[in-house]
Every structure is written in structure tokens, then in C-alpha cells.
Amino acid sequence: MPFAPPEALPPVAAPGLTESSGVAPSLLHPGTFWTLNDSGNPPAVYRFDLAGHALGRHEVPGVENRDWEDLASGPCPGGEGACLYIAEIGDNKRQYPWVAVYAVREPDGDGPATPVATWRARYPGEARNAETLLRNPDSGRLYLVTKDKSGQSEVWRFPQAPGEEPGLLEKVADVPFPGEADAFRQTTSGAWSADGRRVIVRTYVIAWEWDVDQAHPEAFWADTPRRAWLAPEERGEAVTYLPDGALLTTSEGDPMPVNLVRRGER
Which residues contact 161 (CB under 8 A, 6 or more apart)? Predict the structure, then answer.
């Protein structure tokens, strides 16, 4: 078994944190994690640990939370400092002219999460809904995975350089997510492991993991992924990796549910 059964960790109660929609590890404070709320909530990020402690809420000034749907962490553009990458990619009605990723400086104290760069982009055709952001830790390239009840998802790549004027997303792959029910097929979050060797994409019920050939970092989408069963969650919309390769998931709810999926025997 590549993954063990999921385990519940202590939930996190933080004022205003009710719709966790993305999760990412802190680079400045190892062993702690960041999350955010999705559409219509104030623009803020929240830090917590795996013992159930809420460790702070930090405003993101100058940025609207139209429909934030995922979160990644990594070095800031240019390599100076640690950043969080906020995915403004949700679009249930498929009506918005652009999507975006905001790179914000990871707070190291009580201050705000200050924006340092924006990738704004548009689809070459009609708008799409997406909830999954992936950041390649080797190249820094940003990707999104679309969400569809049919399970027929698409992978799109953001322009390499940030820019306020919308650039054009580039299609990388078509990826089917199987299942008899919508909850199995609709993608809600993803993560790229810090060593660059694995990618995970989750739905409401299940997650799929690929091995990445770092010499060909977009070819893995054609491969057959491994399956990981996730904990039953009210509305599970977030996943990330722990340093040992285990999966950490969160869900909408107050307090925020937190669950762990350890790696099993390969």
C-alpha cells in the first residue's frame, strides 16, 4: 500500500477561519502551515500547527479575495525570501476574464503578508473553473488544474514571468479523474513535493499521486497515478506534503478539520 489509512489530527479554531480552501507548509517556521478562506472572505492567510494551535491571522493588503482556491509556498520570485502563492482561480459561473496567482511575502511576525508579484492570465478560449494550484519547486513554474463534474480536467501553465496585464495560459495536458460520483471526479487542491519528485491532486474524496521525472517535468500527466483514500471531510478542499512525504489535508468547517495520510509500503 503506498498510503496508510487517514488519521484525524486536532482541529484548528481561529476566528474567521471557516472555509479552508488551500494549505501549504511554512518555510520560515518549519512544522507549521498556512491556509486561507475561499470566495467572498476577507483577504487574509492563517498559520497553524499540527497540535491544533492557531498561530496568527495576517491581512493581504491591496488584494481582493474574489475566489481564492489554493495555496503553495516557496522562495519569492527572484529567490529572495519566502513567499506564499495564492491562487485566484475559482470561477463557478465561468464568468471572469482572468485568473491570477499572488506571491505574498510570508509573515515573520505580526505584520501583513505583503504582495511582491502577480501572475495574471487568461484562458485562450472560454473561462473555466479551477481549484488546484501547483508550483514546480525546481523551475518555479505555476500550473492550475481545472475542475469539472465530468472529471475531464485540464492542466494549464502560467506565463513564466509575472505581470499585471493578463498573459495567456498554455495548455499542458488533459487528465481524467474517474469515479461514479461527482465528489470523486471534482479536483479541489494539489501540491508539488519540495524535492520535485511527486505531485498530488485531490478531489473531495480521494487523491491521486504521480512520480515526476525532473528532466521532463510535464510528461508525468500521461502516466497512471497512485490512489490515496482521504478522510471523510465536510468539504475537503486542501492538500499538501509533509517533509516525509505524508499528506496533510484540511476541510471547510469551524473548527477547521485537519487530517494526515502517512505513506505505507510501496
Answer: none
